[in-house]
Structure formats: structure tokens, C-alpha cells
């Protein structure tokens, strides 16, 4: 089974982390949080954003980046507005780790400088006023690109109507 890992480096806004936790729970991705955080893990806003998905979450905390790298190996991809490569041009291998930096500063520049081939960006307009996408939106875009490339392993890819049957809708359209 392919394993997707989302890595948050020093997240600052509890609502973003809660939304990301929910995305991880709904996709089966593992969540890694590198401290320090800008909030306490029992923050009401964090819990509220994650709703009732916390029991589905596989989450690990680390003291700092060195602690994380000493305990994990895999394919590391660093999401940043400073990258030259587009996220959609990368072929994500099994055991991928998608890194996202803190909301106010992003990832440390020395980390980016030392890993240029693994730095990727989500394209945006060229306007200084639009500095970056929301962190939780960026994580969702990245996670679903990886899962799309992997053909959505172990994810439910079709839904059901409550009152109707899709087969009846197909018959009616003919």
C-alpha cells in the first residue's frame, strides 16, 4: 500500500491545522507536526476545525526538523512559493512526505536551498499582494494530486444518492 505523509513545520493557526487533520483523516494520510506550534493541541478552534475526525487520524509530533529527519526516511517534497518546479510535474513515489511551512514564513530557506530538485510550487498569479494560498488549501491540492497519480488507493471513488439510484438517472437520460 502506498503511504502519503503530510508534514507541517511549525504551524501557527489552529483552524488550518484542524482542516489539514480532517483532510488527512479522510484520505488516510499520516500527519506529522514539527514543533513549536503557535497554539496548544487542545485548542478549541483546532478541535472544531477537525470536527469528529480525530479518532481516524494517525499523527506524530516532533521537537524540531532534526528530530523528524532522524526518525523518517522517504521521498521528501517541499511546497513553497519560492520553487521553480510545478507540483503537478512531479511523479510522487510511494512513501512520499509533503512538507509545508508555517503560515507567516513558509519553510526554512536553507532547507529549500539544499533540496532544489524537490521544491515544488502551486502556480498563482504574479502579484505581490497575493503572497500564497491558504495552508490548508495547499495541503488539499497537493494531497489529492499525489492520490490522483496513485489512482486513489483505498479511497471510495463513487457515491450513492439517498433517494434515487444512479442507474435510473442513466436510463432517464437516454
Q: What does this molecule look like?
A:
There is one protein chain. With 174 residues, the protein is an alpha/beta fold. The protein is 32% helix and 17% strand. It is built from 6 helices and 7 strands; from the N terminus they run E-H-E-H-E-H-E-E-E-H-E-H-H. The protein has helices spanning 14-27, 44-50, 65-71, 109-113, 135-149, 166-172; strands at residues 4-9, 30-34, 59-62, 75-79, 85-86, 96-100, 119-121. The chain has a 7-stranded parallel sheet with strand order 3-2-1-6-4-7-5. Helix 1 (14-27) packs parallel to helix 5 (135-149). The protein is globular. The termini are far apart. The mean pLDDT is 88.
Radius of gyration: 18 Å
Order of helices and strands: EHEHEHEEEHEHH
Mean pLDDT, rounded to whole units? 88
Helix content: 25-40%
The overall strand count is: 7
Q: Could you say which overall geometry the principal axes of the C-alpha atoms support?
A: globular
Q: Kindly report the oligomeric state of this protein.
A: single chain
Largest sheet: 7 strands, parallel
Q: Return residue spans where pLDDT drops below 50 for at least 5 consecutive residues.
A: none
- Sheet/helix structural class: alpha/beta
Strand percentage lies at: 15-25%
* Strand arrangement, major sheet: 3-2-1-6-4-7-5
How far apart, in Å, are the first and last alpha carbons?
A: 40 Å
Number of helices: 6
Amino acid at each position: 500500500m502506498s503511504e502519503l505523509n503530510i508534514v507541517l513545520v511549525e504551524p501557527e493557526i489552529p483552524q488550518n491545522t484542524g482542516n489539514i487533520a480532517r483532510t488527512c483523516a479522510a484520505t488516510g494520510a499520516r500527519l506529522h507536526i514539527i514543533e513549536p506550534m503557535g497554539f496548544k493541541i487542545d485548542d478549541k478552534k483546532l478541535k472544531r476545525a477537525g470536527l469528529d475526525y480525530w479518532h481516524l487520524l494517525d499523527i506524530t509530533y516532533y521537537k524540531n526538523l532534526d528530530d523528524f529527519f532522524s526518525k523518517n526516511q522517504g521521498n521528501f517534497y517541499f511546497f513553497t512559493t519560492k520553487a521553480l518546479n510545478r507540483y503537478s510535474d512531479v511523479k510522487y513515489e510511494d512513501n512520499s512526505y509533503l512538507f509545508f511551512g508555517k503560515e507567516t514564513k513558509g519553510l526554512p530557506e536553507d532547507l529549500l536551498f539544499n533540496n532544489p530538485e524537490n521544491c515544488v510550487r502551486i502556480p498563482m498569479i504574479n502579484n505581490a499582494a497575493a503572497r500564497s494560498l491558504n495552508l490548508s488549501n495547499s495541503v488539499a491540492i497537493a494531497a489529492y494530486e499525489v492520490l490522483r497519480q496513485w489512482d486513489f488507493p483505498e479511497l471510495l471513488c463513487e457515491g450513492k444518492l439517498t433517494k434515487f439510484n444512479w442507474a435510473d438517472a442513466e436510463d432517464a437520460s437516454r
